[in-house]
Amino acid sequence: MATRRIAYARIAQESNCFSPVLTTMEDFERTHFLEGARLAYAASKAGEEVEGFVKHAELTGFVDELSRRADVEAIPLFSAWAIPGGPIEKATFDHLLERLETGLRAAMDLDGVLLSLHGAMGVVGVRDPDTEIVRVAKRATKGRARVVVTHDLHANITRERVDACDGIVGYRTNPHRDHRRTGQTAARMLLSSLARSQAPETAWRSLPMLLGGGTTVDLLPPVRSIFSRLTALHRDPRVLAANVYFCHPWNDEKRLGWSTLVSTNGDARLAEELADELAERCWAVRHQQPPRFHSIREAIEIARASRVARKLGVVVMADTSDVVSAGAPGDNTRMLAGLLTDGRDLKSFVPLRDPAAIAAFWATPIGGSVAGKVGGTLDPSRGRPLEIDGKVLEKRVHPSLGKMMALDLGSVKLVITDGHAMAVKPAFYSDMGLDPWRADVVVVKNFFPFRIFFAPMARRVLYVETEGTTDLDAAFELEFDGPMWPRDVVHEWRSRDRERRGFAAH
Known about the structure:
- The protein is α/β, with parallel strands linked by helices.
- It has two domains: 281 residues, no CATH class; 178 residues, no CATH class.
- Helix content is 30%, strand content 22%.
- It contains 16 helices and 17 strands.
- An eight-stranded mixed beta sheet has the order 12-13-14-15-11-16-10-17. It has a six-stranded mixed beta sheet with strand order 2-3-1-4-5-6, sandwiched between helices. Strands 7-9-8 form a three-stranded antiparallel beta sheet, sandwiched between helices.
- The longest helix is centred in the N-terminal third of the chain and has 18 residues.
- It is globular and about 65 Å long.
């Protein structure tokens, strides 16, 4: 039996079109860039695929599944992942595409390509860059290799993407915790299509809907039933993959919106029926919008009154307007200012990104005093610098986040970063000598994943709006291809779906 040769790679970032801080090659190299043998080890069971972030992700799932077959050779190319941020510079994107094309051509005679893509990447001057990556893979293999990709749950699906790919598989959890399983599913889909010499039958639907489904957390209503349905469909041997994509609302693609996508093992009618069913389920929860977020003052008052929660653990405040894990710059000072002014009786830990402050304060020894302005410079349209004075508690250089400093501002302990202020895990603070268990309030710049990592200590979680890049209604400023729910009144989804899928052409 001939050996199947399958290459795998990653080019991934979730990009925020409102952030003025462009993503460069340095951001990829600082966060995660591996190739060849180093990537093969990182994606093995013994390795750590994305050091400091996730031990086993999609590429591990790819390799895990491919290694079960004696007649398959897995060929590692490279893995480039950057922390969410502003759009990627065109030169950086072109460089990554060139590396992908060169690697694929050098691999020669490939039967398949597995790509880990986010699905909501933004590049300066490029429309639908995730699709461009797939097209490069097709071109480099002269159209002879099947290309299957994985996507984040917040990907934005386009007609061009569906047409270019031989298969798309997405996460089925929110917060995301099935990265490895997603990679395994994608590998199985690719192997199945190669064995049958036939690509999967895929159907999809595109809804003119940005927000809905309440919190969209998979364990909570109203979307819990949707995720349960996805789980049931994946037990059906006729179904290769079934997904719902909630989209990344800070994306300047005019055809933005929720999507459903189903791939079957040769049954086109079934794929169409299931994609339609899932779309109806999504449209049915559109009226249940995200809960109202607290103002800073409201959140402080609630935290102050939560004495038992603070005694047994901590109150976690999520700055929903400056979510670094959704591409915000991380330098919004409104939360910091509020806690310094109105929360002086609460011991609080706060993150902030400010390369200029790091440069100005870095030479100060631990225990030394610092004074000056922090924050509000990366995105001056969304915030303003804040005058502070304090003492240096700790300094370190993080392999991905760069230089970090912990400052004692009295009731507030501030952690400033040179790179992204990725405050998602308690380790962001504990690595700086700050024990979150001893705080009253811990601030994160994240929507959902923090709930997994802070679960042992978070006795109360408060979502706080501070007016910034990741306000949910910020996307209402964008130009869409027609009315968009909930910004506009939209009575039905099918007519827009037909247009987006090019129904007349099919």
